Amino acid sequence: MNSLLLAIGVLQKTMENSQNNLDDLLQQLERLIVKQRVFSIEVDALKKEIHRLKSLAIEGETKKVISRPDTALSEKEPEIINEEITPAKEVHKMEGVIEAPKKAAKKTAKSSKSKTDLEKFIGENLINKIGIAITVIGVAIGTKYSIEHDLISPLTRIILGYLMGLGLLAVGIKLKQKYTDYSAVLISGAMVIMYFITFSAYSFYNLIPQTVAFAFMVLFTIFTVVAALNYNRQVIAIIGLVGAYAVPFLLSENSGRVDILFSYIAILNIGILIIAFKKYWKSLFYSSFALTWIIYFFWFFTDYETETHFTLALTFLAIFFVIFYTTFLAYKLLQKEKFAKNDILLLLLNSFIFYGLGYALLDGHEKGKQLLGLFTLGNAIVHFIISVVVYRKKLADRNLFYLISGLVLLFITIAIPVQLDGNWVTLLWAGEATLLFWIGRTKNVAVYEKLSYPLIFLAFFSLLHDWMTAYDRYLPEDIESKITPILNIHFLSSALFIAAFGFINYLLFNKKYPAPFAHKKGFVSLMAFIIPAIFLFVIYYAFKIEIDSYFNQLYLDSAVVITDNDTLKYNNYHYNYDIRKFNTIWDINYTLLFFTILSIVNIKKIKSQSLGIINLIFNAIAILIFLTVGLYTLSELRESYLAQTLAQYYKQGTFHIGIRYVSFAFVAALLVTCYHYIRQEFIKTNFTIAFTLLLHISILWVASSELINWMDIGNSNQSYKLGLSILWGIYSLLLIVLGIWKKRKYLRVGAIILFGITLIKLFFYDIAHLNTIAKTIVFVSLGVLLLIISFLYNKYKHNISDEAEN
Q: Whose CA is closest to 259, among 304, 222, 226?
C-alpha cells in the first residue's frame, strides 16, 4: 500500500514538472514570435531605406553603400535574437550603419576633388603664368646681353623681337577656342614683348620716329583692351598693360627722357580707363594706380629740377589725376554701384596726391607761389562740377555725393588760408570744424559730423606747426622778433582754438544731442576720448609755451662777452644758466597748478570717472617729476646762490632759495586735491593705499631735501650721512605709530622697509667717513628708535593680531 502511494506521488510530481516545462516552452515560443515580428518590421524598414538610397545615390556609390550594411546585418543577427530591443532603436542603429559608409564616401570624394582642384590650378593656371613671365624676363635678359656685347645689330634685335611677339600672338589666337585660359596668357605675354620692342626701337636706337612709336603704342593698347574684353580675362589686362610699366626700366640707359616715360605711362592708363567703362577689375586699377604714382614720386624726389621740368611735371600730374579720377568714377557711375570703403579711400588718396604734389611744384616756383590759392580753388571747382553732375543725373548713391561735396568744402577751406598767415589757417580750420560739428550734432546729420573730424585734426596739427615756428624766432639784435607774453597773436590763436574746441566738447557730452551714428559705439567712444584729450593738451601747452618763450628770451638777452685777460684776443660768451633752471621750476609749478585746477573742475562740475582716473595718474606723475627733476633743480639753484658765480653780471638773490617754498605750496595743493579726489563717489575705485604711499613718499622726500638744503646753507658736511639717517629713522618710527594707531598694516610694512634701507645706508655709506662722535650719535639714535619700535610692537601686539584676524 505504501509502495502504491509512493508511486502515485512520484507520478504526480512528474506531471507537475512536465507541466512546468511545458509552460516554460510556451513562454519561450511567445517571446520568439514577438521577436520575429520585431525582426520583420526591422527588415521591412531596412528594405525601404535601401530602396531610398538606391534612388538617390550614384550607381557605383550605391553598390558600396548596400554591400557594407549586408555584412553588418549578418554580424548583428545573433544580437537581435538574443536581445529584446525596440524596432525604433534597431532602425536607428541600422541607419547609422548605412550612413557611416555614405559619409566616408563623401569625405573621400571631397578629398579627391580638393586634390584635383589644386592640381588643376597649378597645371592650368599657375604654371603658364610663371612660364610667360620667365619667357619675358629671358627675352629682356637676352636683349640686354646682346646690347652690351654688340652681338647683333639694333635693327636685327628689333625685328627678332617683333617676330617673337607676333609668334606668341599667333599661337595664342589659334588656341583660343580649345584652351581659352592658356591662350589669354600667351596673348598678354605677346603684348608685353610688343611694348618692350617698340619702346627700345624708339628710345634707344632711334629706328622709328616718335609719331610712329606712339602710333604703335596706341595700337597695342587698343588691341590689349579689345583682347581683355573679348576674352573676359583680367590676366590679359594685368600682364599686358600693368606688366608694360616695367619696360622703360628694364632697358633704361638713363637717357633722361622723362617726357617719353610719362607719355608712355599715360597711354597705358588710358587703356585701363577704357576697360573701366566695361569692367571694374580692381586688381588692374590698384596696380596701375600704385605704379604710376610710385614712379612719379620717385622721379620727383630724385631728378626733378624746377627750371627744366616745371611745366612737364605739372602737365602730367594733371593728366594722371584726370585719368584715375575718370577711371574710378566710370564703372561705378555707369553701373550705379554703391561705394565701399576702399573706393572712398582711393578717391581721397588720388585727390590728395594731386593737390600735395601740385602744391609742392607751385611752391618751389617763383611765379607759381602766387598761384597757390588759385590752384587750391581749382581743385574745389573740379570736385564741385563732379558733385553737381552726380547729384543731377543721380548717377550714384548719396554717400558719393557727400564725399565729393566734402572735398569741395575742404579745398575751399584751404584756398584762402594758403595765401594767408599760418594763424589764420588754424583759425579757419578750427572754426569750420566747429560749424560742421554743430550742424552734425544739432541737426542730426551724420555726414557733417564726419566731415568735421578731419578738420579737427587739421586744425590741431596746424596749431602745432604754428607753435613750432612762431615761438622760436627771437633774436636779441632784432627787437621786433620779441614776443610779449600772453599779449601776442600766437596766444590769441591758441585762445580762440581753445574756445572752439570747448564748444565742440560741450556738444560732444551734451545728452540733448546724441551722435547721429550712435550705432558705431567704438568710433564714438574713440572720438569722445580724442577730442577732449586735444582740448586739454592745447589748454596746457598754450600757457606752457608762453612760459618757455618768456624764459628763453630772458636767457638770450643775458649774454655777456668776457675778454680773456691773458691774450686779450678771445671773447668768451656767457649766459645766465640759472634762467634755464627757473624755467624748469616754473614749468613744473605750472603743471602742478594745471592738474590741481583740472581735478577741482572734475570734482565740482564734470564728475567723470574716466577723466578722474586719468587725472589721478597724471597727478601722481607730476608729483614724482617734482620730487626728482624739481628738487634736483632747486638744489642747483641753491648751489648757484651759494657759489655766486659771475655775480658781477647776474643777480643771484634769496629767491634762489625762496622759490622752493613756492613749489612746496603747489605740491601741497595738488596732494590735498588728490585726497578729496579719491573720496568722491563717482571714482568707484579705492586709491587709499596708493595715495597714502604717495603722500608719505612726498613728505619724506621733501623733508630730506629740506634737511640737506639747510645743512648745506649751514656749511655742514654731514648732511647726506648723519642727518638723513636720523631723519629716516624718526620717520620710520612715525609710520609705525600711525600704522598701529590707524590699524594700517601697509604703513608698518613701509616703515620696516624704510628702516631697513636706513640701516643698509648706515653700514655701507655713513660710517665710511664719519668721525667717532658722529658714528656714536647715529648708532645710538637708530638703536633707540629700533627699541622704541620693538616696544610698540610688543605693547600693541594684541591690536595687531586682532587686526589680522579681522
A: 304
pLDDT in tens, 168-201: 888 888 877 777 777 777 787 787 778 778 877 8
Element spanning 104, H or E: helix 87-121
Q: Coil, helix or strand for 560?
A: strand
CB 727 within 8 A of CB 707: yes
Per-residue cell: 532: 577732449
For 76-101, letters b (16+ CB in 10 Å) and e give beeebeeeeeeeeebbeebeebbeeb
End-to-end CA distance of the chain: 100
Q: What own/partner pairs with CB < 8 Å and gap ≥ 24 does 605-611 have? A: 607/680, 607/682, 608/682, 609/682, 609/683, 609/684, 609/685, 610/529, 611/532
> What are the C-alpha distances in Å from 667 to residues 494, 595, 619, 687, 699?
27, 11, 10, 19, 10
The string of DSSP letters for 746-788 reads HHHHHHHHHHHHHHHHHHHTGGGT--HHHHHHHHHHHHHHHHH
Q: How far apart are CA 432 and CA 441, in angstroms?
A: 14
Strands, DSSP E only, in 524-629? 560-563, 571-574
Q: What is each CA distance from 7 to 11, 82, 312, in whole angstroms?
A: 6, 41, 139
Query: For the chain, how many residues are written?
Result: 806
Tell me the CA distances in angstroms from 231 to 133, 217, 221, one per residue in order.
20, 21, 15
- At 425, list the grid cell: 589757417
Q: pLDDT of 25-65, one tens digit each?
A: 777 777 777 777 777 777 777 777 777 776 665 444 444 44
pTM over 0.90: no
| Helix, strand counts (H, E) of the chain | 28, 2
Give the CA distances from residue 764 to residues 258, 441, 770, in Å, rounded to whole numbers and listed in that order: 75, 67, 12
